[in-house]
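Worked example 3 (structure in, sequence out).
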């Protein structure tokens, strides 16, 4: 009996559930009650934007993405298939706006089927801001930050175009003072030419301007920046004729021994000194003063603050002559064969040297070398006088010409 009751109690429950579902379906399908559902974040469609622009030169700069929440009431069967994308919310711009400003617009909720009712929407209006769209030309500037490497200098930047055109709301364009290209000096290790660079629009205080509603005719500008090497090099003055003893014993005192130059790093690195001029020793006297222009090589300029000329004062030591008895004499034979022999007959030669007293006092006969060079193939047997070369220290010169006697035999 208990088993029978358990079996038929379960059956009773199943039958009750089926009857309940069936009754619910009957009520829903036959009675079809009215319900209300909420649909959130429905985009507001702004109509008349093109007419607003064409008629008043106005565009929406804020509020174009406004949304509203809508409560819709309808029979249950109708709401069952209604989605938020089927609901349209429309606000008209042209009939409400003719001047720049911020407006609270009424809107219309359009439902896809009759029998549906919008019972509530929130917010009740949508806010939009409109402004005139203008085009403005603003100057472009290059701002270089950071410290340049030691011995280098950044020259004046050059722009392919010194202005850019921007388009946007009049009120926002009024805040734009200029376009700025920012460069880091630490990264400028060599000159750049026509490099396409981004720029930022800034106000009069140098703060970046929001460019959300601003369009740019060009987003980049071409920039060239010369990177110069600055180097200090010696200044020199030459004395002519170079082989004159007076030139060897003269000196020049300059008002500035060096000068700073600037230019292409490779070109500047190749310069070891700059010769500013020449003094002819035969036409000058001790203490004479000369002024020379400092002219760097082509493509190189003087660094800022450098004098463009230099003063030179000539200092000449007086010279005298002194005789030396030289025994350091050698003879060499340049003949290709040894058919003939040569012997030096002169054992001592007296030569006259010219130099300053100080130089001559420090010189002795052993510092002087007499060299005779012969070609025995061109000489007959017997004695011959042949010219010699006198080798001396650079600070002195030889006065006159000399010869020695040699003997040639077969």
């Amino acid at each position: 009996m208990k088993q029978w009751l358990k079996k038929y109690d379960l059956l009773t429950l199943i039958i009750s559930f089926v009857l309940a579902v069936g009754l619910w379906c009957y009520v829903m399908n036959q009675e079809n009650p009215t319900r209300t559902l909420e649909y959130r974040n429905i985009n507001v469609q702004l109509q008349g934007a093109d007419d607003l622009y064409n008629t008043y030169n106005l565009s929406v700069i804020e509020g174009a993405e406004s949304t509203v929440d809508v409560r819709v009431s309808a029979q249950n069967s109708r709401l069952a298939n209604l989605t938020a994308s089927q609901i349209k919310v429309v606000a008209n711009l042209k009939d409400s706006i003719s001047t720049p400003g911020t407006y609270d617009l009424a809107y219309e909720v359009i439902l896809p089927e009759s029998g549906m009712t919008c019972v509530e929407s929130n917010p009740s209006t949508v806010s939009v801001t409109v402004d005139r769209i203008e085009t403005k030309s603003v100057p472009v500037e290059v701002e270089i930050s950071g410290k340049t490497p030691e011995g280098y200098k950044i020259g004046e930047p050059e722009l392919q175009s010194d202005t850019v055109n921007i388009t946007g709301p009049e009120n926002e364009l009024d805040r734009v003072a200029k376009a700025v290209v920012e460069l880091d000096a630490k990264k400028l290790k060599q000159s750049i030419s026509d490099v396409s660079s981004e720029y930022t629009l800034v106000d009069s205080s140098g703060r970046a301007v929001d460019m959300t509603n601003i369009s740019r005719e060009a987003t980049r500008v071409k920039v060239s920046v010369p990177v110069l090497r600055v180097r200090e090099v010696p200044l020199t003055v030459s004395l002519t004729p170079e082989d004159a003893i007076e030139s060897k014993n003269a000196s020049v005192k300059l008002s500035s021994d060096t000068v700073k130059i600037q230019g292409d790093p490779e070109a500047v690195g190749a310069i070891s000194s700059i010769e500013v001029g020449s003094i002819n020793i035969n036409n000058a006297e001790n203490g004479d003063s000369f002024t020379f222009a400092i002219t760097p090589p082509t493509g190189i300029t003087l660094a800022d603050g450098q004098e463009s000329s230099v003063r030179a004062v000539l200092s000449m030591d007086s010279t005298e002559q002194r005789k030396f008895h030289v025994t350091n004499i050698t003879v060499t034979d340049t003949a290709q064969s040894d058919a003939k022999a040569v012997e030096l007959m002169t054992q001592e030669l007296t030569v006259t040297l010219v130099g300053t007293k100080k130089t001559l006092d420090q010189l002795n006969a052993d510092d002087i070398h007499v060299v005779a060079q012969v070609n025995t193939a061109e000489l007959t047997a017997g004695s011959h006088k042949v010219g010699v070369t006198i080798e001396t220290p650079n600070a002195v010169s030889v006065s006159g010409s000399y010869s020695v006697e040699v003997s040639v035999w077969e």
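Notes: The mean pLDDT is 89. The two ends are 164 Å apart (CA to CA).
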